Input
Amino acid sequence: MSIKENILQFRQEIPEHVTLVAVSKTKPNADLMEAYEAGQRIFGENKIQEMTEKWEQLPKDIEWHMIGHVQTNKVKYMAPFVSLVHAVDRIKLLKEINKQAKKENRVIDVLIQIKIAREDSKFGMPVEEANQLFEQGKLSAYPNVNVKGLMGMATFTDDTDQVAAEFELLEGIFLRFRESANLSILSTGMSGDYKIAIENGSTMIRVGSAIFGARN
Ligand SMILES: *Cc1c(COP(=O)(O)O)cnc(C)c1O
Output
């Protein structure tokens, strides 16, 4: 199927309350434009330089999501335009996004990435640390950052019970703090596990290869 058909099929398949992020990392602008012409406006990238180049070259009504691990010293390059940063996994990064957002005179939306995978996962804030962050109201120290929700990646495994358990754990944290911390986004699920993610409360899926084909 073509990129365009894949986008249209996803739009039919996923519930209305779930947002589709088209993960376009490594793909050429022509591929993104094919998705754009099918109506897709939210794209996810995992490298700041690549995302910035695409932002400069492509239509300005695209919303750019940074879904990958972010190095603190590179935040300044995306601060003028990024629409959502998915993988904030440490206070130091929150602090830097706040600083650069202030310089740009804007408030940047972010998600806190929580470590839910038992294996495979280098990144993500430990659950206990995230609990403290939300319980103790520490977020008010960062007025130019708006924490809109949580993000997580499950272990890369064929064991669907394990994947479901990991997503369920994150959904529990999301529901616990949803009202007090005003959270609305739960970013879980990729090409291989988005169905399990949606069954476990996902409101935003990040899909790459199932739309654009395999990456090299
Ligand atoms: C690459 C990537 C995805 C998309 O992966 P696919 O398996 O191609 O759908 C989702 N989330 C993150 C954080 C990624 O780096």
Notes: The chain has one domain: 3-212.
